[in-house]
Design a protein that fits this description.
- The protein has one helix and 26 strands.
- By secondary structure, the protein is mainly beta.
- It has a single domain (6-370), classed as Glycosyl hydrolase domain, family 43 (Tachylectin-2, Chain A, 5 Propeller), CATH 2.115.10.20.
- Strands 19, 20, 21, 22 and 23 form a five-stranded antiparallel beta sheet that branches. The protein has a four-stranded antiparallel beta sheet with strand order 1-26-25-24, with no helix packed on it. A four-stranded antiparallel beta sheet has the order 2-3-9-10, with no helix packed on it.
- The longest helix is centred in the last third of the chain and has 4 residues, at 321-324.
- It is globular.
- The model is unreliable at 375-379 (pLDDT under 50).
Length: 379
């Protein structure tokens, strides 16, 4: 598929670490490991806002045969050290600490969120709002704030994030009247329920969200089922966006017809169209250390979003190596596109993605791309 616009619009080179929340608070040299996975919404002035995840990492994490990680505590940033012989550093984004009967890991970076204002069509940088950056401010965020997803419901902006700590890997909610000044509302989903996406509109008078609970055990579907066991995109509803009850019905599940959804999860907040709720999500084909991430789409019933009207087995967005070629010296992953935002652009959608866990990608996708499924059955 070809696109009228498909470019990287924000990269690590665009960040001034002298204005980072960590600047002057850590006795160590850092660099931007990635500026990626941006939540997106439209501001009152018509411009688009990206809430960029900035993964700030130690330039020299290994000293004296120990690997170090950054941790926030009581308003300060400190370094923790583990002996190299006790950890597994195969994945550049983290290191594993074996033992204990379950997986324990630490991150090689600490993430914070940077508001980046783009032009109305998303093609040009307007302003970087360092004074509105979001950094850890609670114990459950001591290892960082990750992967914002922004929805506007009525006149209120709601932003979900992943907050990371030894206490829990949870989903937290921020709210705002203008998408620039945010209030932390606290934890809304507990341990390892990632990719929470609040629908941009109410369903039956309630807030609705996609969720993706994670676990180490999944029960098998019967032989010959059209579904494959594994992580899936579930649904929850809430009277106030704070207290959530899971749907009894399943949502979008991995399909046995394709290996590209061996692992899957939410992408952009569902938006209402004349055909139903359009949702973009990610599927992962097993390959290498992290797999190949692609973007897919589904159309959900407007009154009961547990009903999938149509799911495409063909990827909407593929990883784009040509886009990251100028940044090849900074790359530590490939084969990843992770869509995180969508906005109406008239005859097209403006779609925001993280590319290679490194940079922010904006793609203009014609609304006609979703027309061909009309009159066909869900699959």
């Amino acid at each position: 598929m070809t696109f009228a616009f498909d470019q990287l619009v924000f990269t690590p080179a665009d960040i001034d670490l002298a204005r980072s929340p960590l600047a002057g608070k850590l006795d160590a040299e850092t660099y931007v490991l990635g500026a990626f996975n941006p939540g997106m919404t439209r501001l009152a002035n018509g411009n688009l806002l990206l809430m960029v995840r900035v993964a700030e990492a130690l330039k020299h994490p290994v000293k004296e045969q120990k690997i170090h990680a950054i941790r926030w505590t009581d308003g300060a940033y400190v370094l923790d050290a583990w002996p190299l012989e006790l950890v597994d550093t195969k994945d550049p984004r983290k290191f594993l600490i074996p033992g204990g009967g379950w997986k324990v890991m630490a991150l090689t970076s600490l993430s914070w969120l940077l508001p980046v204002e783009l032009s109305a069509d998303g093609t040009a940088l307007v302003e970087v709002h360092y004074d509105r950056a979001i950094a850890p401010q609670a114990d459950y965020q001591c290892y960082g704030v990750e992967d914002a997803r922004i929805s506007k419901v009525g006149e209120r902006y709601l932003m979900t994030t992943c907050s990371v700590s030894p206490e829990r890997h949870c989903t937290t909610l921020y709210s705002s009247n203008d998408a620039l000044d945010w209030i932390l509302e606290g934890i809304v989903l507990d341990h390892q329920n990632k990719d929470m996406l609040i629908f941009e509109g109410m369903v039956g008078g309630k807030f609705v969200a996609q969720t993706r609970p994670l676990g180490d055990l999944y029960f098998a579907y019967p032989p010959g089922s059209e579904w494959r066991s594994g992580p899936s995109i579930n649904l929850s509803s809430s009277p106030d966006a704070l207290h959530w009850k899971p749907y009894d019905k399943p949502g979008i599940r991995p399909h046995a017809a394709t290996v590209f959804t061996a692992r899957m999860g939410g992408g952009s907040p569902p938006v209402l169209t004349e055909d139903g709720w359009l949702t973009l999500w990610h599927g992962v084909e097993p390959s290498g250390v992290v797999g190949i991430y692609r973007t897919y789409w589904s159309m959900l019933d407007r009154d009961d979003p547990s009903i999938v009207l149509r799911t495409s087995h063909e990827a909407l967005l593929e990883p784009a190596p040509a886009l990251t070629e100028p940044l090849k010296d900074l790359m530590y992953l490939d084969n990843v596109v992770f869509t995180t935002g969508i906005a109406d652009g008239g005859d097209h959608y403006v779609v925001a993605s993280g590319e290679a866990d490194l940079a922010c990608r904006i793609t203009h996708i014609s609304k006609r791309a979703f027309d061909a499924w009309r009159g066909t059955a869900a699959g």
